[in-house]
Amino acid sequence: MDPMNRPYRSVLYIPASKERALDKARGLAVDAIIFDLEDAVTPEEKDASRAVLAKAIADGGYGNRARIVRINGFDTPWGKADAEAVREMDVDAVLLPKVNSAADLDALAEITGDLPIWAMMETPRGMLRAAEIAAHPKLQGMVMGTNDLAKELQTRFRPDREPMLTALGLCLLAAKAEGLIIVDGVFNAYLDENGLEEECIQGRDMGFDGKTLIHPAQVEVTNRAFAPSEEEVDLARRQISAYEETHKSGQGVAVVDGKIVENLHVETAQKTLAKAEAIAAMAQ
């Protein structure tokens, strides 16, 4: 599946050191998995976790799910060895934490070669250099690291995430300008379905492609929030049909539900249908 046209509604972090979790992930209805060598792995397990992950990837069974590996940063004792290990794995991308500049991505690309790179956006310097980072030729996607960013910004948690909106917006602008994938940060209260749904809707309406998750219990809510609804799919079809009929006849303007349909609406409608089709393909 084309990585740029596939869905990324739900992107679940899985500890790379936990064989049971790696196995369970094969049966979860997620669009992508971040196999985590960083925060989810203790220092004592760092070296062994590479071999555990390499075996799980080699064994396969992850289907259409995008396979992304988050390594440790190059400012740690494990980052370089992580990158060298991931280079030999059959995965879709490597995710670098705490990206501050395009130079950080250059350093990773020197090791991982042609493997697409994703960037964790979680530092104030990274926010200020989002456009530079997004323009890197190897970059395919961005992941918002909202927990680390909140710590660096010394913000307080608010359900509306108002203290985060500037940072989220800067990264969204950068990603959209370069045609990248961008997924929202995690929602920590994993048993709070209402809170999760509200944050998913906020992120979706802002323009995020999906959301990173910390627990399988969050998958269903997130997939539903970031998928086109039946009403949206129906409207998209009617908009395309009305526009095509009007264009064919050369008369008047297309109108659906009392609203004018222009070319920009048709482009959005086509993207809605393409996303719905890609989600259906994931389920096969």
List keywords for this structure.
globular; 16% strand; TIM Barrel; two-stranded antiparallel sheet; single chain; alpha/beta; 12 helices; eight-stranded parallel barrel; 2 domains; 284 residues
Please describe what this structure looks like.
The mean pLDDT is 96. 47% of the residues lie in helices and 16% in strands. It is built from 12 helices and 10 strands. α9 packs parallel to α10 and α11 crosses α12 (263-282). By secondary structure, it is of the alpha/beta class. The longest helix is centred in the C-terminal third of the chain and has 20 residues, at 230-249. It folds into 2 domains: 10-226, Phosphoenolpyruvate-binding domains (TIM Barrel, Alpha-Beta Barrel), CATH 3.20.20.60; 230-282. It is globular, with a radius of gyration of 20 Å. The strands form 2 sheets. An 8-stranded parallel beta barrel has the order 1-2-3-4-5-6-7-8, surrounded by 4 helices. Strands 9-10 form a two-stranded antiparallel ribbon. β9 (254-256) and β10 form a beta hairpin.
Strand content: 15-25%
> What is the radius of gyration?
20 Å
| Annotated CATH architecture of the largest domain | Alpha-Beta Barrel
**First-last Cα distance:** 12 Å
Helical percent range?
40-55%
Instruction: Characterize the biggest β-sheet.
Output: 8 strands, parallel, barrel
Compute the average pLDDT.
96
Find the CATH topology of the largest domain. Answer: TIM Barrel
Question: How many domains, as an integer?
Answer: 2
What spatial form do the alpha-carbon principal axes imply?
Answer: globular
Taking pLDDT < 50 over at least 5 consecutive residues as the criterion, the unreliable ranges are none
Please give the CATH class of the largest domain.
Alpha Beta
Strand order of the largest sheet: 1-2-3-4-5-6-7-8
Class computed from helices, strands and strand pairing = alpha/beta
Number of strands: 10
Count the helices. How many? 12
| SSE succession | EHEHEHEHEHHEHHEHEHHEEH
Q: CATH superfamily of the largest domain, called what?
A: Phosphoenolpyruvate-binding domains
